[in-house]
Amino acid sequence: MNEAGERMVQHNNKLYQKDDFVRALYNAAGLTVEGVLERLDEAEKQEFFDTMTETGVKLIEGYLGIIPPKDADIAERRQNVQSNWLAAKGKKFTIEMIQDVAEAWDNGAVDVQFIGGKIIISFTQIFGVPKYIESITATIEKIKPAHIGFEFVYRTHSWRDLKAYTWEWAQTKTWAEIKEGNWGEVYRKF
After folding, report:
1. Would you say 134 and 79 are in contact if contact means Cβ atoms under 8 Å apart?
2. Is residue 89 classed as helix, strand or coil in its secondary structure?
3. Three-state DSSP state, 183
4. Could you give the CA distance from residue 52 to residue 70 in angstroms, rounded to a whole number?
5. Which residues on adjacent β-strands are paired with residue 120?
6. Rounded to whole angstroms, what are the CA distances from 18 to 13, 23, 25, 32, 157?
7. Cα(43)–Cα(53) distance, integer angstroms
8. How far is the C-alpha of 98 from the C-alpha of 93, rounded, in Å?
9. Which residues are paired to 153 by β-bridges?
10. Are 128 and 152 in contact (CB under 8 A)?
11. Are 66 and 83 spatial neighbours (Cβ–Cβ below 8 Å)?
12. Segment 68-124, tens digit of pLDDT
């Protein structure tokens, strides 16, 4: 007997608790209750973007007309849904809207400014080009006015940053890792 059915049987008279018909009836009802509880748990996960399951992500993607990248994992798809949702909820275009959309992708590690008639989006915590740049570009293209351009500013390392490292350390890395790698998190100094 399932757990929910067993709990329901426990609340009956002792004579009924042993009756096969009553036990079968409560077992069937218990299966229904457990199914409802599982669906409620699933629905609760859809409440926030960071806990959304595949079902919720597909639903919102369909609602917003998003075609997810082929190789995108669930986390990237959640970020894409969140940024597009933030873009869709805004009625009037503002720099704050672009900031909210960009922060949905990079967890608040962006700086958005309007300089010289152009939107400048600077990634402030990561080095190199983010893997999700195509998705964020598509979202920004949807929400910005057509006459306003935008560009991204990426962080890279300079030769000065290499002074604290040895030549042996540098020989084990690719040029891309040296130029764009986040050494503080990925690499240890020797």
Report:
1. no
2. helix
3. helix
4. 19
5. 113, 151
6. 9, 7, 12, 21, 74
7. 9
8. 8
9. 122
10. no
11. no
12. 777 888 888 888 888 777 776 666 777 888 887 777 776 657 888 999 889 998 888
Assess contact for 127 and 157: CB atoms under 8 A.
Answer: yes
Sheet with 110-115, edge to edge strand ranges: 110-115, 118-127, 149-155
Paired tokens of 47: 């409440």
Please give the radius of gyration of the chain, using alpha carbons only, rounded to the nearest integer.
26
The token pair at 132 is 């999700």
Euclidean distance between CA atoms 110 and 97, whole angstroms: 13
Q: For each successive 10 residues of the chain (190 residues), what is the average pLDDT?
A: 74 75 76 75 80 86 80 83 74 78 72 90 81 82 85 81 78 76 48
Here the tokens at position 70 are 């082929």
pTM, rounded to two decimals: 0.51
> Whole-angstrom Cα distance, residue 180 to residue 50?
27
